[in-house]
Amino acid sequence: MTELYLKYEYGIAFSQLLLAMFGMGATLRIVDFVNVARTPRAFATGLSLQLLMVPLIAVLFLALFNLHAGVAIGIAILAAIPGGTTSNIYTYFARGNIALSIAITAVTTVACLATVPIILKLLITDYVPADFQLPAARIAAEIFFSILAPLAMGMLALRLLPALAPQISTWSIRASLALIVVIILGATTSGRLDWAAFGLSNVLVVTGFTLALLAAGLAVPWLMGAPRADIVAIDMELTVRNVNLAVLIIASLFPAANAATSELGSMALFTVLVYGGWMLMPALALIVASRLHKNSAAAPTQPRIE
Question: Options 3.90.550.10, 3.40.109.10, 1.20.1530.20, 3.40.50.1820; which CATH number does 2-291 get?
Fold first, then answer.
C-alpha cells in the first residue's frame, strides 16, 4: 500500500476534493450567490475576516513561535484556503444564518482561484528552499479543475436532476470521505504521519491557531452588533476550513515521492490533519451552545404564584 500511495498520492487527493466539491455543488443554486445582497454587512464582515483576519492571525503565529518549516507551511496553507464544505451543515445544526453561510462559502470558494496563490506566496517564502518556485498558475488551474468545475457540475446536476440531486450529493460526499481515510492510512504507512517527529509542542500550536480563529469569528461580529445567527455563520466559516483543498495543495507542492521536500510536506500534512480534527471540536461546542440558548429562549416562563 505504501508504494501505491506514494505513486498515486496526488491523484487520490485530487479525486477526493473533486468528489467533495461535486457533492457540495449538488446542494447549491444560483440564488445562494444572490443571497449575498440580503445581508451585505454580515457578508462583508465574513469575507473580510476570511481574506484578511485569518492570514494576519497566521502571520502572528509564524512570528511568535519558532516553528518547523513544514508546520509553518501547514499553517500558511490553512490560512490561504477558504471555508470548508461542511461549514454550512454545522451552521444549520447550530441554528445560524444558513443563507449567509452558503453565500460566504460560495463566494470565497470562487475567489480562492486568485487569493490562494497570493496568500501562499506572501506567507511561505521564508520556509521553503531558496530555489523553490511557487507554481501560482498551476495552483490556480488545480483549484479551477478540482473545485470550481465540479462545483458548477454539481449545481448543473441539481438543476437538471432535482429529484436525484440529494442522492448524488450524499454518495459523492461519502466517496470523498472514504478517500480521506485512504489518504490518512496511506500517509501513516508511508511515514508521512509521525507523531514522534511532529511533537506535542506543534500540536499545541495548531490547537492555539484553531482557538484563535474561533475567537476572532465570535468576537469581531459580536463587537459589530451582529445578530447571533450571523455570528454563528461567520464563526463556522472561519473555523471549519477546506482541509480537502489543503491536502491537495500539499500533495501538489511537496509530494511524498520527492525526497528533497518530503519532510516539509509530511510536517505540513500532519499540521493540516491535526487542524482538521481540532476544528470539529469548537464547531460541535458551538452547536451545543446554540441549541441550549435556543431551548432556553423558547422555554415558557412559570406563572408566579402569589
Answer: 1.20.1530.20
